[in-house]
Amino acid sequence: MYDNKKKSGFVTLIGRPNVGKSTLMNHLIGQKIAITSNKPQTTRNKIQTVLTDERGQIIFIDTPGIHKAKNKLGEYMISVAERTLKEVDIVLWLVEPSTFIGAGERYIAEQLAKIKTPVILVINKIDTVKKGEILTFIEAYKDIVNFAEIVPVSALKGENTDELIKILYRYLPFGPMYFDEDTITDQPERQIVAELIREKALRLLSEEIPHGIAVSIEQMKERVNNDTASGNKGDGGLIDIHATIICEKDSHKGMIIGKGGSMLKNIGSKARLEIENLLDCKVNLQLWVKVKKDWRDSDFLIKNYGYNENNFN
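RE: above sequence
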């Protein structure tokens, strides 16, 4: 529905891995959709979330961190991030508070120099530095790109995020509401569930393993009994979810399962709690582990596990 008094548009979040893009987006929409961890390459697909208020509607697009590709999955992730730059109304470039501008940031700056889209620099994690230092970080970055604005925030603490939203509305055009006002994301439930399981694995496993795992949802079916004949998830129903964690090495499989199945049980119990919160019902989560050697260099397997060009459509 078009309302010429309301603003609307698409805002992409870009930056190097682990700068807090997913954490910021989750905070801005007020709900956890994108998974987070302290390991690079946590986000692999383009994830859209929606913020609707009395001023209009902002569609946020969280993209994989821009990095040097080491395999076909890495190449796919970079293409997702860079292609998105040309499809949006505003680019939010997240950086950490530092006066050192490394090769990764300079590469991103080169990509941003090629577009006409307004770029807002977001200096994240300001809760980790002294207030007086923030001006030095702004000074270091201010001339690297012709920024529309520079906004320091703490995505983790929510500091200055309301001001960031105000600035976004200032630069967005007047336009239609692209989604219903109660829409939070266009991500299918299956995909969000798979990502929540992967997040718990990322957080619990050692540094060596996470880059080489994917999660495939084999079954996601509501079990309806006499008490839940209405089929409403919030009425105490139960959903059976069968999922497989894919890894690249036999040794990794053993580590994911753990002694006596302890690691897999830990991943499953932590994921189940968040999935129940997401779906508003009880969940019976069954996890398996399979080895698919070098799946990140297989076009077929990359697409099979949900990383494909259809995410652009």
